[in-house]
Model the fold of this input.
Amino acid sequence: MKVQAARANLHGMAADWNTLKLILDLERGGSLAAAARATGASAATLSRQLARAEAQVGRRLFDRVPEGLRITDDGAMMARHADRMEAEALALDRRLAGRVDGLQGPLTLTLPPLLASVALAEDIRGFARRHPGIALRLLGDNTPLDLHRREADVALRVSRTPPESLWGRKLVEQNAGFFASPGFLQNHADGLRGEAPLPVLRFTAWARTWPAGLTEVFPSAEVAMTCDDMPVAIALAQAGVGVLRASCSVGAEAAGLVPVPGTPRVPYAPIWLLTHPDLRRSAPVAALMAQLTAFFEARKPMFLGAR
Done:
């Protein structure tokens, strides 16, 4: 009887989407803290929800281990069902969104914050004014959002290898260059000639001290400061701390920075415009992608660093 009751409870739980979604979120996060960050709920709330779910099922769904949560066989079985249910729901949502013919409804664009220039903001404002029926939302995030899960509808991404499962096009190739404040150039003329140490800003993402070719441009380069964020590096360069290596568009937009004379342009990751294949024929998505394509094509010289 106890076994039959437990099976009945487990069968009943399969129809409870909220509980299945909880198990899926916890499995993906691997801990209460990680799942809380992903869902916006508190870890304490998720812990109470998990305790209720395990009480209803009559068996443990996760083992509590020092590194977080380890899903049990029963929990994994339920998570697999939840994953399939979520995939079907998301596919239906995308197909319904792709059938929208009119210029109306919600539309989300995700882009790296450094691409959000004043010129792009003005262009997007013009799009919103021309299409008042579209509720446009912008998400500035360096972490690529999942277009398969409808975290966004259209994405601008700086990448050499965009996901093959998405549909879109390469907007522009990019070059990178070297930038500094005018005062820095004046104070370090001997360093630029290789006759004294030249302070250069380093990024933690660089596997080695310098990327390939940098020491050929600046033989006397030394680390001025290390940081992991481009806006911080821009501020340091503006303050005269060191030379900044950045995409030409970033250098052109940064007030108070100028190209270091005599330095080359080097290849940089291109900019892509992407959407999910199910959404490519949606009227709002197509309109926004056409607008963004025209904007970037008109500014190709800036992204290549034409002077």
Notes: The CA atoms of residues 32 and 47 lie 7 Å apart.
